[in-house]
Design brief:
It is a single chain. The protein has 922 residues and is α+β, with helices and mostly antiparallel strands. Among the domains are: 215 residues; 196 residues, no CATH class; 59 residues. Strands 1, 2, 3, 4 and 5 form a 5-stranded antiparallel β-sheet that branches. It has a 4-stranded antiparallel β-sheet with strand order 6-7-8-9, with no helix packed on it. The protein starts with a helix and ends in a 14-residue tail after the last helix.
Length: 922
């Protein structure tokens, strides 16, 4: 092989490898087609700038340009060799880039359940437009990199000018266009492509002329520094040597001089960004989907190049200039020198890359030219988390800028030139993004624990490796091998630590479940446990007493705002705990009691929760109807009950969507509504909604209703004497509720029906079998099927990912529900699930009640203790898996605030007698 060709291949190979990795992997990082075809051409342009500047830039960095020109070879041959190999490398990278983008489009469109296939025609059109734009950018990058590197003879300066010059040219042309032409999309496309061709021809001619007339000038290979101006000189230099700066000041001044080119080009980027604001103000409102508007709204992304360049310049440029060895001989410790180098560069990179564009766009928004991509509405997380999601997005931009600087700084300590460091930074960053995209597609991240552990570990590892490389001059292979081992060790530590914490390895040494006390309740005359999603918890004793409690997180209501809810609790997903009232409803001989507990985000926008018992309503054995004496926010009102009217023919009351549904002994159906009272009206502070302001009205005229059952606040089921089941619709306001026939629930034992937010349904049938219907994607609600063949089930509770049922022998059993059912699931596969043997939950067999609240299952033991079992769906993005042990909540005997709990254990142990004389109010 020709020596000149061999030398040129060795010169281009490191940068070409990094750029090839960038262009091949980047299209597979994004899931959205808009991002793929918007950002990949920009990355393609930046990668080709690195490759092209490397062709002559490394000659100047290594000091071999003069010797190359003095060789007994014609300059035309040297030019042809360099340009030919450069074009071959660029062509290979372009083919790999086009093939990768084409495969990405094909794989996304043909993939099952892909959203790309619904817009395949538009996506293919965007793909062709992106490839055409990339071809124009290829010409601009190659010719621009050639003439800038030959003119400036410094890689960092050439990179910045190559990057900024076409952007400034396009911006200037955009500002000079008349409105009619600026609104014509086709004319703009022709105009900009014509400018790209003219710029490429002019740049190639200029590069060829500079190469043929290259001379050995005095500043060849020198450093262009803009940080020292004659205006700041204090006078003529004297012959007396004096110490003008302290060590810290001298080191900081040296670092500013080192980054002077980057700071000067950042000032040029600032001027271009200000010009973008003018373009946005002039043309953005007239053609929001035009190329000018898209470029104007996405220009802020170019600022992210600054932290990578600053990091890559920090150490590599000093090694290229040969001053690193002399720096360590200065009368300053290496820690001080490293701090003086690292901290200013970190501040400049983070501020210029993340803070500056956000600050500029914020000012532009205040002046009436907002950036469409940075609007808060586009980054909403939840219904009340608008600013949470927006601030998270802004923080991610600043964190990305800091990460790019950190990668550049590490690469700068591993390489010998700026371009090598920049290509290594880009290759490393793209490799991380590609691995993350692969993991996102093929792995399910069930916990943020690896990310939280990585937050301190990764920066600490990178800082330690950067410090270690800064202090040592070793062979390249030894330096790289130790850094690779350091990164691999940090990765293994993160994965091992997160796996150990997530799986709760310490629970191996703990008992499976705490012991229970002597039994008091039994399944012959079981208590009635009612636990619903809003945290309301009640236990109705067989003797007619009703014990109430409230579940919450740390004594507070759980809601969906990270400003109020602590981050640690949100990530760890703790099991709800008892937070009061833990006492009996006033009076005795209750046959039916229900309480409307409420928690709602303040509609006035303040950071507070509206909570409290709206109404507590009950029916006694003598047929009288009772309601709580008052209704106040944050106050449990069941301790003081008063009778409603004089009627003695009430039989049952259940909670309804906007009030209560009631049955009388004459089998008539009634409803008690709050009317239009609503906490969202804004007058909730003085007008807390209550049903006592409205009359009790009859539903229809039929007198054949026998039983009611609440469906956790979404309505209720009502059953007639003929066994038919009806749904009492959740109609708001003062209108009478709708009665809808529910033929599928005639076989349901009312009070056992359970439904998850995903649409799963389960219940205990009249014959004691367990029935369920698991909703699948695209199939709707399949037919209800029996779960197994046993006929001794008492209760069932459903969640998103799991189902738990209680047997008559007092044992709990659990099923894990499938997560990925879709249209491809056959009826046989669907039916086979219900034949699976469930897993035993816990070790005890004295459970007498089952209910669900928040993200956990609530079970009542025979000793009166209540326990919460965390669910797998609640821990989908939690720090750790659900604990194997249930959490103790409270005991209906020993932890109530009522005086009548004393001595009950002795009286009630054994068989529980449902008589009025057993319990007396003392």
């Amino acid at each position: 092989m020709n020596a000149l060709v061999k030398k040129e291949i060795g010169l281009l190979l490191p940068g070409a490898g990094g750029v090839l990795l960038l262009e091949t992997l980047l299209p597979w990082v994004y899931q959205d087609a808009d991002y793929v075809f918007s950002f990949t051409p920009v990355a393609f342009f930046l990668g080709l700038i690195i490759l092209t500047v490397d062709a002559f830039g490394r000659e100047f960095s290594l000091g071999t340009f003069q010797s190359l020109m003095s060789q007994p070879i014609e300059r035309q041959k040297i030019w042809r060799t360099k340009i030919t190999l450069l074009l071959l490398a660029a062509g290979l990278i372009s083919l790999a880039y086009a093939a990768s983008c084409g495969l990405r489009v094909h794989a996304a469109i043909t993939a099952r359940d892909s959203v790309w296939q619904f817009n395949s025609g538009i996506i293919r059109s965007d793909f062709h437009n992106a490839m055409l734009a990339s071809t124009a950018l290829l010409l601009v990058a190659i010719t621009g990199g050639l003439w800038t590197s030959l003119l400036l003879r410094q890689t960092a300066s050439a990179f910045w000018v190559t990057f900024l010059c076409p952007c400034t040219l396009a911006l200037g042309v955009g500002l000079c266009l008349p409105n009619k032409l600026a609104e014509n999309e086709h004319a703009l496309i022709v105009l900009f492509y014509s400018l790209a061709v003219l710029y490429s021809l002019g740049g190639f001619w200029l590069a060829y002329r500079l190469f043929n007339r290259a001379q050995d000038v005095g500043w060849s290979g020198g450093v262009i520094s803009f940080s020292r101006w004659r205006y700041f000189e204090r006078g003529a230099q004297t012959g007396v040597s004096r110490r003008g700066y302290r060590p810290w000041a001298a080191l900081l001044k040296k670092e500013l001089q080192l980054h002077s080119v980057s700071l000067f080009c950042a000032a040029g980027l600032l001027a271009a960004h200000l010009g973008i604001f003018m373009v946005r103000a002039l043309y953005g409102r007239f053609h929001g989907d035009s190329m000018v508007n898209i470029f104007a709204n996405g220009f802020w992304i170019f600022w992210l190049v600054v932290p990578a360049v600053i990091g890559c310049t920090a150490v590599a440029e000093e090694r290229k200039l040969g001053v690193m060895d002399g720096q360590f001989c200065l009368p300053a410790s290496r820690r001080r020198q490293f701090a003086a180098k690292f901290l200013p560069a970190l501040f400049l990179g983070t501020f210029l890359g993340g803070g500056m564009p956000l600050l500029l766009e914020f000012i532009a928004g205040r002046l009436g030219t907002p950036n469409e991509f940075l609007k808060p509405d586009l980054h909403r997380v939840g219904g009340n988390d608008l600013m949470d999601g927006y601030f998270l997005f802004l923080g991610s931009i600043v964190a990305l800028a800091m990460g790019l600087f950190w990668l550049g700084m590490l690469a700068s300590t591993l390489t010998k030139s700026f371009l090598q460091a920049l290509s290594s930074t880009i290759a490393g960053g793209v490799l991380v993004l590609a691995l993350a995209a692969w993991a996102r597609s093929h792995c399910t991240l069930v916990t943020p624990l690896p990310l939280l552990i990585a937050l301190p570990v990764v920066p600490g590892t990178l800082l330690w490796l950067t410090w270690w490389n800064f202090n040592r001059f070793q062979e390249a292979w030894r330096l790289w091998s130790r850094n690779i081992l350091g990164v691999a060790g940090a990765t293994v530590f993160i994965m091992a630590t997160s796996a150990a914490l997530y799986h709760r390895v310490w629970e191996v040494f703990k008992p499976a479940e705490p012991p229970h006390g002597p039994p008091i309740f039994n399944l012959t005359t079981p208590p009635k446990l009612e636990a619903v999603v809003n945290g309301d918890l009640s236990v109705q004793w067989p003797d007619g007493r009703v014990w109430c409690d409230t579940l919450g997180y740390g004594g507070q209501w759980r809601f969906f705002s990270s400003w109020q809810y602590p981050l640690w609790r949100e990530l760890s997903r703790p099991v709800p705990e008892s937070c009061g009232p833990r006492q009996f409803v006033a009076g005795s001989n209750w046959v039916s009691v229900t309480a409307w507990q409420f928690a709602y985000w303040n509609p006035e926008g303040k950071q507070e929760i509206i909570r409290g018992y709206l109404d507590t309503v009950g029916v006694k054995r003598d047929g009288t109807l009772w309601i709580s004496h008052e209704t106040k926010p944050a106050v449990w009102n069941g301790a003081d009950m008063q009778q409603v009217g004089n009627e003695t023919n009430w039989r049952q009351v259940v909670r309804w969507q906007n009030g209560f549904a009631l049955l009388k002994t004459d089998d008539t159906l009634w409803w008690w509504s709050r009317g239009t009272n609503d906490l969202r009206k804004g007058w909730w502070r003085t007008n807390w909604p209550t049903v006592r302001r409205h009359p009790i009205l009859q539903i229809g005229t039929d007198a054949n209703w026998q039983e009611l059952a609440d469906i956790h606040g979404r309505g209720c089921h009502a059953r007639r004497a003929d066994g038919t089941t009806w749904f009492l619709g959740a109609t708001a306001g003062s209108l009478p509720p709708d009665l809808v026939r529910e033929t599928n629930f005639d076989q349901v034992v009312l009070g056992t029906f359970s439904q998850s937010g995903r649409g799963h349904q389960a219940f205990v049938a009249k014959d004691g079998t367990l029935q369920a219907s698991i909703e699948t994607s695209g199939r709707g609600y399949p037919a209800v099927q029996p779960v197994g063949t046993e006929t001794n089930w008492l209760a069932v509770q459903l969640y998103y990912n799991w189902m738990v049922a209680l047997k008559r022998d007092g044992t709990l059993w659990k099923w894990n529900l499938p997560q990925n059912w879709n249209l491809s699931v056959s009826d046989e596969q669907y039916s086979s699930f219900f034949k699976h043997t469930p897993a035993r939950l816990g070790i005890h067999d004295d459970w007498v009640g089952l209910g669900g609240s928040w993200d956990c299952l609530v079970s009542l033991a025979a000793d009166g203790s209540l326990w919460a079992w965390p669910g797998t769906d609640a821990y989908e993005f939690a720090l750790m898996k659900p604990p194997k042990q249930p959490r103790y909540l409270s005991n209906v005997f020993t932890e109530s605030k009522s005086r009548q709990s004393a001595g009950l254990k002795a009286e009630l142990r054994g068989e529980f007698l449902a008589t009025d004389e057993i319990l007396k109010i003392k």
